[in-house]
Backbone:
């Protein structure tokens, strides 16, 4: 089974102090890393390929630094990496990105394309499904399990309230992967050393046969206008006093809010 | 001049950090309190190739430099010094084997260390010979083709866990040159007459095993000798010029942890109506920690890089070891200070860092010994 995984380099923002400049998050002091969902997707792809034979290709669109996530994918077990790297891509909306990915895929035939459900920075959760549309592939989202059959896969999709749905898709197909689908492996020193001998294919818009007006802001229908940090709200109410007093007050508050009858 | 790490080195740092954060964090307090360790963590680290990266590919290693081993060490120690030491000290002695041992010894020992099949310990220190290693009085006496070993060692890291112990012993006690009296022996841990006892009650790095060893008429084959007879002291100096680099990385990792804990705390803790971070007294502490950490790292980066280039700068290595260790001890002290009473309890990580730090100024050359070396290179 030949599998393509789309991966993205994103800032790690969980504990960072964010600053916004020109409607963009200032990345200067932020640590970049693979988008969490994509990490699960790479792991899933490597496992599926290991089980079925076949290879994994990782692909990203991003600046020079984004190569880090490709090397990581290779170190985890992918055999090939493609880097779409061109300033022309800046300002692309998800549909435009999907068309760029489709152009990069060209007439290569993958049995399966995996993406993360969403990226942690922009959270559009749409690049994957739009790519499926462009390629005219069946797709399933929010996968927490993938089983392979002869010419089909069964995908378990995560739904709300602990329910899940099983769907069957003919191959080739595209699946967006939810976090928690597996336990991603750690990158090993052996994996890192293996990457030393590999070359990563670099592609500009031109190489994909895309003109200026087919990429970037010009080609996009959705344009980012403003990015804002949330207003700092009122602080939490701190309960002071003896343990009994604190518990008494806590019960009162819960009751006031309708939590206890 | 290029100060940038290679992509591969950056990948190594990231991989080591992820592994340590993922596997060490939850276990650190438990090991510290109980003075135990789970060797499965060491095995997992071996499986991922983090252990013995400086060992040549000919002997199953990654064939990377001491520099890369330092990068891994810094990341492990930045998460937890005790576990970092328990995992990475398992090759303490491989540096000497790689430099001086026979092909057969190398092939026997080194691949097993990398694969997580075996641990090696190096026993130099004795009750009466600490900083003055040339006073080591354990003896190895020729006996037919082989040797007989007698004496005792103290503070041997991994003494009860190791499959092999590299023992520094007197072979020519009457030699006029006190640096020509000793030799190293590769002693299988199961040898009859060798007894190892775990020492408990350590201040810090409590996940790491420390033992005392007794040798009572231990019979060794001729091929237990490492390198040439009488070369022990010189081998020891060459060995320390590698392993001290690792101590620097330990120190910088610990300093980083102290700095991280401090930054988190002073941003959140409010006194006199504002976060501690607003007080200039706090800011100066943070500024000093950050600056000294960078300085220590640059020192050891240069020292380790030079060794990997084949240029061993004994004085520079001693500078880096002293400076980084002292800096780690001070940083841990200030970090605890900024935590106030909370930092005095072991639920706060700074308490453990404070205790873990002190060993850095003691083992593999106390800070005084390092300064003696530095002064020697400056004054001639
Ligand atoms: C946890 C731990 C692990 C260890 N692991 C190992 C190991 O694996 N293998 C091993 O062989 N050893 C090991 N050691 C031993 C360690 O290397 C020694 O403790 C260290 O070298 C100091 O020796 P000492 O304890 O005998 O102190 P001493 O040499 O007695 O020194 C006491 C003090 O006197 C100072 N001093 C000594 N001489 C001078 C001088 N000439 N001028 C000025 N000051 C001086 C020292 O700097 C020190 O401050 C370990 C120790 C510990 C605590």
Residues:
């Amino acid at each position: 089974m030949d599998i393509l995984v789309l991966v993205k380099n994103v800032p790690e923002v969980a504990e960072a102090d964010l600053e916004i400049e020109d409607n963009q998050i200032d990345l200067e002091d932020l640590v970049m890393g693979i988008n969490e969902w994509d990490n699960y997707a790479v792991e899933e792809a490597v496992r599926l390929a290991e089980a079925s034979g076949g290879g994994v290709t990782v692909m990203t669109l991003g600046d020079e630094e984004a190569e880090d996530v490709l090397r990581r994918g290779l170190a985890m077990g992918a055999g090939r990496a493609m880097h779409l790297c061109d300033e022309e891509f800046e300002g692309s909306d998800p549909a435009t990105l999907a068309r760029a990915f489709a152009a990069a895929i060209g007439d290569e035939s993958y049995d399966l394309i995996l993406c993360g459900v969403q990226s942690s920075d922009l959270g559009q959760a749409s690049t994957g499904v739009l790519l499926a549309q462009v390629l005219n592939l069946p797709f399933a989202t929010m996968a927490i399990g993938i089983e392979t059959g002869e010419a089909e896969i069964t995908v378990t999709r995560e739904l709300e309230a602990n329910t899940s749905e099983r769907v069957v898709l003919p191959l080739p197909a595209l699946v967006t992967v939810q976090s928690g689908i597996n336990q991603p492996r750690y990158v090993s020193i052996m994996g890192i050393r293996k990457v030393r001998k590999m070359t990563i294919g670099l592609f500009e818009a031109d190489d994909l046969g895309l003109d200026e007006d087919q990429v970037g802001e010009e080609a996009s229908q959705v344009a980012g206008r403003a990015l804002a940090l949330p207003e700092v709200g009122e602080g939490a109410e701190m309960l002071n006093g003896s343990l009994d007093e604190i518990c008494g007050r806590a019960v009162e508050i819960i009751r006031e809010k309708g939590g206890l009858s | 001049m290029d100060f940038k790490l290679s992509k591969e080195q950056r990948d190594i740092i990231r991989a080591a950090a992820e592994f340590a954060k993922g596997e060490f964090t939850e276990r650190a307090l438990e090991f510290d309190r109980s003075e135990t360790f789970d060797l499965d963590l060491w095995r997992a680290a071996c499986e991922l190739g983090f252990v013995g990266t400086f060992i040549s590919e000919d002997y199953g290693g990654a064939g990377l430099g001491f520099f890369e081993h330092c990068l891994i060490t810094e990341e492990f120690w930045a998460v937890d010094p005790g576990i970092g030491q328990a995992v990475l000290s398992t090759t303490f002695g491989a540096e000497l084997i790689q430099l001086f041992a026979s092909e057969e010894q190398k092939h026997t020992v080194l691949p097993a260390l990398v694969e997580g099949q075996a641990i090696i310990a190096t026993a130099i220190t004795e009750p009466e010979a600490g900083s003055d290693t040339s006073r080591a009085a354990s003896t190895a006496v020729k006996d037919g083709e082989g040797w007989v070993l007698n004496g005792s060692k103290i503070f041997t890291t991994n003494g009860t866990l190791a499959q092999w112990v590299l023992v520094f012993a007197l072979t020519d006690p009457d030699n006029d040159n006190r640096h020509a009296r000793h030799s190293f022996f590769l002693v299988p841990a199961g040898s009859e007459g060798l007894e190892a006892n775990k020492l408990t009650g350590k201040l810090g790095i409590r996940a790491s095993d420390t033992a005392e060893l007794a040798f009572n008429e231990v019979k060794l084959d001729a091929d237990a000798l490492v390198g040439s007879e009488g070369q022990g002291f010189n081998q020891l100096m060459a060995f320390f010029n590698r392993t001290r680099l690792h101590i620097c990385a330990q120190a910088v990792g610990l300093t980083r942890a102290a700095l991280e804990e401090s930054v988190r705390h002073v941003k959140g803790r409010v006194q006199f109506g504002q976060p501690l971070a607003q007080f200039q007294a706090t800011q100066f502490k943070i500024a000093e920690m950050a600056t000294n950490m960078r300085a220590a790292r640059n020192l050891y980066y240069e020292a380790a890089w030079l060794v990997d280039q084949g240029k061993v700068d004994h004085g520079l290595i001693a500078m880096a070891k002293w400076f980084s260790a002292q800096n780690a001890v001070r940083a841990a002290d200030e970090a605890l200070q900024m935590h106030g009473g909370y930092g005095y309890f072991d639920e706060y990580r700074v308490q453990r860092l404070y205790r873990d730090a002190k060993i850095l100024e003691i083992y593999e050359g106390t800070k005084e010994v390092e300064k003696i070396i530095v002064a020697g290179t400056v004054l001639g």
User: Anything to note?
Assistant: Residues B 92, 122-125, 130-131, 155-157, 202, 210, 359, 362-364, 366, 368-369 surround flavin-adenine dinucleotide (CB under 6 Å).
